[in-house]
């Protein structure tokens, strides 16, 4: 119990420091985005399969909403997957948000019915492509 | 000629001295290049239409989780030529089908690791974003006398695009052949150590699919090699993919710039820095008139180079290993060395399959992958489309044989005109 309390205190302090650093990073949004992304990925790794699925659904949904919000105020950038897609970027974002909402509903049913806990996975080699590692600096 | 240094020395036959490093590279390269290719183009089969698997029956074809695909497959011929008149490519498909394919094409969550027979969590096809998919219950059957065929499993990714003003999804996929029948019976075995398929094309669900599929069978004993000329293709009057042009090139190690291993900060190998020469290549095959499947690969002059960083953990003991490339630049030139331009493309998703190849001292890796074309220079400025790769790579000794398939989007023929008139 004492270990848990100490860890929680350490976590709170770390998050405070992280928050302070990211406030200063607001003048460099790309750096802040990388840092927040790293935290999200770490949290995701620690979750079990069921909660991870819920986390990812919520995360995708939030991203879609943020993309749409930025698109509405003209601050959006076209996602990499949309290159060459032409057409109306805002329409695509609205459409994507609609599909993400539907998928969130499907995921919720899948989760509530307990199916997620029985879901088998195949060989990890067929899983998502991990980020490319950084090569060692040239000597 | 400089060659990369190999870490391990192979041995010759009993009582003969060990092979030199260069001889090892040449021997393994010969084994890797011994392949039977079967380029295929799909055509909708009206007698057995594709069937969507809807999220709910009342939603019909609007919201669906999978497509049960039943397509006719035609022989596909791509002849790329680089000469004083620039670069040309003719794309033809056979009038008659040569095979059929059945798969369950199923979208899946981004973090899912699929497997043969594993149904992923229900995932709605979203035409507005790039999604992963898996191909279950894959069965490709040739219309030859022995009904040769393969059972296969794979995965891929969609890339939203617009085709003729309509939304569509570019498709890239990698498929591992699990077993074979007819002339391919026993696969994988010493005769056919492995086979890989890659898919490159686009779909407008549920019925409009324009997909190129290339089956590469490792054939070290040349069982499937045509002994003479192959029966010419009788072309269909219809163009297989009028809005695009396909080009094939065969990559081989560049003897002046050896393949180099890359290491992470902890000293662990993380991949290979690869330099290749690209050759013109023409593939023909026949399934109907001879006693067995026959394939013929004819290579031409070097017309380009590739420089890329290939990331994969070749020390991973798994049978399937994720692969990707970064910094990929494909440069093309005519036989006189005049530049035609460059293309930027990376394999954003690929798989390597550890494969035991008789005659090679270490396992080699079959690889398949794909990724969007991200522009270029010269006559290829603004190029878009999809690159796919069907290859075999040996880490020790370092050598490879890579078939590159470019599908350049070219709805009004402007790219083809530029390429012809560039030199």
Question: Short summary of the structure?
Answer:
Chain A is mainly α and about 140 residues long. Helices cover about 65% and strands about 0% of the residues of chain A. Among the domains of chain A are: about 10-45, no CATH class; about 50-80 and about 85-110.
Mind explaining what this structure looks like?
The complex is a heterodimer of chains A (139) and B (423). Chain A has 139 residues and is mainly α. In chain A, 67% of the residues lie in helices and 0% in strands. In chain A, helix 3 packs antiparallel against helix 4. About 9% of the residues of chain A have low confidence. Chain B is 5% helix and 55% strand. Chain B is globular. Chain B has one domain. Chain B has 423 residues and is mostly beta strands. In chain B, strands 10, 11, 12, 13, 14, 15, 16, 17, 18 and 19 form a ten-stranded antiparallel β-sheet that branches. In chain B, strands 1-3-4-5-6-7-8-9 form an eight-stranded antiparallel beta barrel.
Index terms:
heterodimer, A: 139 residues, 5 helices, extended, B: 423 residues, mainly beta, 8-stranded antiparallel β-barrel, 2 helices, 55% strand, globular, disordered N terminus
Percent of residues of chain A in beta strands?
under 5%
- State the order of secondary-structure elements of chain A, H for helix, E for strand: HHHHH
In N-to-C order, the SSE pattern of chain B is HEEEEEEEEEEEEEEEEEEEH
Number of helices of chain A: 5
Kindly name the structural category of chain B.
Answer: mainly beta
> What's the mean pLDDT score of chain A?
68
Radius of gyration of chain A: 19 Å
Largest interface: A-B, 43 and 54 residues
User: What share of residues of chain B is helical?
Assistant: under 10%
